[in-house]
């Protein structure tokens, strides 16, 4: 048990990806650590984010594959969905991982998890449920939660968020999804593939390469998902149905509406101003390159800060924050940072886009290869999507690799390595790539920088 008045080296507020990474790495250096959790152990990823959404997506993709079987010699079928059983299976998985990857890990590394609500009373005092917990340094890693936009009429309807949508035990007949980002698109396809009539309001993957977001839109439309590339303006309810009207006067009606317009930092109750911890205009905790806040004794990491909201970014920033709290001088290098949108096909990226490269002052050269020219995709009878390589026209250095393909996420480790290693397009084109893998498409795309002629299967 924790002794309340004994000072430890590091107090970590939260138990999500950033918090656990920080606690683990601090313990590896021999530091004493206490973690504080006011809610459910494990934070966003295991409870309401990555794990539950991806297991439900896998289930939905399995059903869809049976319904849209591309191989005539292997008959398949899919019946109605028992959502209650599916949610129970998801909850069992979450519970198992919460125990084995969080509670058991804390015990193995030797740090306590203290239940309670943390509140700063001044620059050097942290209370947990009114009692002081003292440390040499503190880390705020409380994560983020779904943002609820100020759309007139929204407060009058029983709207869903990504959290509550994954708690449903019965499928709605129809669903309107507000938001075309990662969460909105994954949830839209998840419910559509389970048999729900879905409409998405918003630009699809607005920060992706336009060639790829356009192809993703085609894939959604081909699955019967309606897309209105506009912003929601008002929401009304009539006879049990929710009607969303866009700024341009288009209407979408559904039995339920799901709001997926980003996330907001979870800092309520921490009383950050009392500790001299500054936040930006959206409420995210401001940190310097060492993850230190405006209070030199307090660090912050993960989604509570304004960083890309991926669990591996949270883990890296948590690790670096812990090291710096213990006297090191480390910084996060985002070169080649990968991202994956787990729709089908997946939209994955590493490095920067063409637009970002131009904004950074590069003279860009880009090549785009459709999956209809990738042997693996041809063999799979699934040529939706493509691959784009962004390069510096003057040096040939690879700046970004972007793909829309059913296994695009599996390609990103190779893409990240090529970027961080400083490969040129010529080196990438001459790299060994196993035939009939999707990652081979990266090499084939790089080869287009030599000429725009088609290539043989193995050339």
Automatic annotation (TrEMBL):
<comment type="subunit">
    <text>Homodimer.</text>
</comment>
<dbReference type="Pfam" id="PF02852">
    <property type="entry name" value="Pyr_redox_dim"/>
</dbReference>
<dbReference type="InterPro" id="IPR001100">
    <property type="entry name" value="Pyr_nuc-diS_OxRdtase"/>
</dbReference>
<keyword id="KW-0274">FAD</keyword>
<dbReference type="InterPro" id="IPR012999">
    <property type="entry name" value="Pyr_OxRdtase_I_AS"/>
</dbReference>
<keyword id="KW-0560">Oxidoreductase</keyword>
<dbReference type="InterPro" id="IPR023753">
    <property type="entry name" value="FAD/NAD-binding_dom"/>
</dbReference>
<dbReference type="InterPro" id="IPR004099">
    <property type="entry name" value="Pyr_nucl-diS_OxRdtase_dimer"/>
</dbReference>
<keyword id="KW-0479">Metal-binding</keyword>
<comment type="similarity">
    <text>Belongs to the class-I pyridine nucleotide-disulfide oxidoreductase family.</text>
</comment>
<dbReference type="InterPro" id="IPR016156">
    <property type="entry name" value="FAD/NAD-linked_Rdtase_dimer_sf"/>
</dbReference>
<dbReference type="InterPro" id="IPR021179">
    <property type="entry name" value="Mercury_reductase_MerA"/>
</dbReference>
<keyword id="KW-0676">Redox-active center</keyword>
<keyword id="KW-0285">Flavoprotein</keyword>
<feature type="domain" description="FAD/NAD(P)-binding">
    <location>
        <begin position="9"/>
        <end position="318"/>
    </location>
</feature>
<keyword id="KW-1015">Disulfide bond</keyword>
<protein>
    <recommendedName>
        <fullName>Mercuric reductase</fullName>
        <ecNumber>1.16.1.1</ecNumber>
    </recommendedName>
</protein>
<dbReference type="InterPro" id="IPR036188">
    <property type="entry name" value="FAD/NAD-bd_sf"/>
</dbReference>
<keyword id="KW-0475">Mercuric resistance</keyword>
<keyword id="KW-0521">NADP</keyword>
<dbReference type="Pfam" id="PF07992">
    <property type="entry name" value="Pyr_redox_2"/>
</dbReference>
<keyword id="KW-0476">Mercury</keyword>
<feature type="domain" description="Pyridine nucleotide-disulphide oxidoreductase dimerisation">
    <location>
        <begin position="338"/>
        <end position="443"/>
    </location>
</feature>
<dbReference type="GO" id="GO:0016152">
    <property type="term" value="F:mercury (II) reductase (NADP+) activity"/>
</dbReference>
């Amino acid at each position: 048990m924790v002794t309340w008045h004994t000072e430890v080296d590091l107090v970590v507020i939260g138990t999500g990806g950033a918090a656990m990474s920080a606690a683990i790495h601090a313990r590896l250096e021999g530091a004493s650590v206490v973690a504080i959790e006011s809610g459910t152990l494990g934070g966003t990823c295991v409870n309401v984010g990555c794990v539950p959404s991806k297991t439900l997506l896998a289930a939905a993709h399995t059903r869809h594959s049976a319904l849209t079987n591309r191989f005539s010699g292997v008959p398949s079928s899919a019946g109605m969905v028992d959502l209650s059983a599916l949610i129970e299976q998801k909850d069992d998985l979450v519970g198992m991982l919460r125990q084995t990857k969080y509670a058991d890990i804390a015990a193995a590394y030797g740090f306590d998890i203290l239940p309670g609500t943390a509140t700063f009373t001044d620059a050097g005092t942290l209370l947990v449920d009114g009692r002081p917990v003292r440390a040499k340094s503190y880390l705020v890693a409380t994560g983020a939660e779904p943002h609820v936009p100020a759309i007139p009429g929204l407060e009058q309807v029983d709207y869903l968020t990504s959290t509550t949508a994954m708690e449903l035990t019965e499928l709605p007949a129809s669903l309107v999804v507000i938001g075309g980002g990662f969460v909105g698109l994954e949830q839209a396809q998840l419910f559509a593939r389970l048999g729900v009539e879905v409409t998405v309001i918003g630009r699809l993957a607005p920060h992706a390469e336009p060639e790829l977001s356009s192809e993703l839109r085609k894939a959604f439309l081909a699955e019967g998902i309606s897309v209105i590339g506009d912003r929601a303006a008002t929401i009304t309810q009539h006879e049990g149905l929710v009607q969303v009207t866009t700024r341009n006067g288009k209407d979408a009606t559904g039995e339920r509406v799901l709001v997926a317009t980003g996330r907001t930092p979870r800092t309520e109750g921490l009383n950050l101003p009392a500790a001299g911890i500054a936040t930006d205009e959206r409420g995210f905790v401001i940190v310097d390159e060492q993850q230190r806040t405006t209070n030199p004794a307090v660090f912050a990491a993960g989604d509570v800060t304004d960083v890309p909201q991926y669990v591996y970014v949270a883990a890296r920033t948590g690790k670096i924050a812990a090291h710096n709290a213990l006297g090191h001088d480390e910084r996060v290098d985002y070169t080649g940072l990968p991202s994956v949108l787990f729709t089908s096909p997946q939209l994955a990226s590493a490095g920067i886009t063409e637009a970002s490269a131009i904004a950074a002052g590069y003279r860009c050269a880009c090549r785009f290869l459709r999956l209809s020219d990738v042997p693996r995709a041809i063999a799979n009878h699934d040529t939706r999507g493509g691959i784009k390589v962004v390069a510096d026209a003057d040096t040939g250095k690879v700046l970004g690799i972007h793909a829309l393909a059913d296994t695009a996420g599996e390609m990103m480790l190779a893409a990240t390595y090529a970027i961080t290693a400083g490969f040129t397009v010529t080196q990438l084109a001459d790299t060994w790539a196993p035939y009939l893998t999707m990652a081979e498409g990266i090499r084939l795309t790089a080869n287009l920088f030599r000429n725009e002629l088609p290539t043989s299967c193995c050339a």
